[in-house]
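A quick aside before the break. I want you to see a complete sequence-to-structure record at least once, exactly as it would be stored in a machine-readable document. Don't worry about memorizing anything.
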Amino acid sequence: MGYINAIIILGGIGILGALGVAILTGYTGLFTIGNAGFMALGGYMSAILVTKLGVPFVIALLLGGVFAGLCSFIIGIPAFRSQLRGDYFAIATLGFSEAVRLLLNNTKAVGGAFGYMGIPILTTLPVVILFVLFGVIFAHMFVTSQYGKNCIAISQDEVAAQMMGVNLLKTKLIALFISAFYAGVAGGLLGFYIAYQSPSFYTTARSSEMLAAVVFGGIQSLIGPVITAFILVAVPQLLLVFAEWRLIIYGALFVIVMIFRPQGLLGYVEMNMNFAYAWWYRLRGKPYAGGKETS
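That is the input. The structure line, written in tokens, reads:
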């Protein structure tokens, strides 16, 4: 049972990271392969807040996410002012992530290459489930809001979006901040589950896993990345004999998906609460008609 709990916990952490990439890449069209750097920043900060300053666990996780979001402006402002997009922005995020990892690797105050030790084990299954639920709800609220519509407009055509009055810099920075926030919280949960932080946790492979969940799950979809993020974490754990081959498998799946279904498995399929409404009306013995109660 403990092994199953571990898989669910790691899967939930993967879901949070994938939600951040889904908002930035899936909805805003900004290709990123550097969210592992934001995971590291949020994870280390939340660990320091708890161990050094005695900040409560949940507050430390949220503050770690905010710290990662603020750090995203370091790369976001110059990149967006220079109008970097596509592969160029992806390379910029990759460079930022590697810079963060190397900085942590050579900073003795946070353990350097040995990692940051003495972190209490506070991440439990109920905690992860709650964070995932709130994370999914907030992501759904964001992508269905006006800001989310602006992000979709930018992903479709930046010039047209700007002509319609969308503030490109502000919208992109908001999307990047939220993406980094999700990654930072995921990094904190990971550290408080494993009981230490290490720069080796946050390599390019970590970023690739989050990106793979979005590509496989579907562009402009939340439910798709949520499902595939859990699968991409659970399957290698259940089939450890193939764990070393996962990046090769990911690469092959990338090619297959891009050829036969470039929008992803559930691309453009958005999650909604119709099933909950239908269940509620059925419980009350009344028919359900698309969100409207009928007599």
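Two observations worth writing down. The CA atoms of residues 39 and 187 lie 4 Å apart. The mean pLDDT is 86. We'll return to this after the break.
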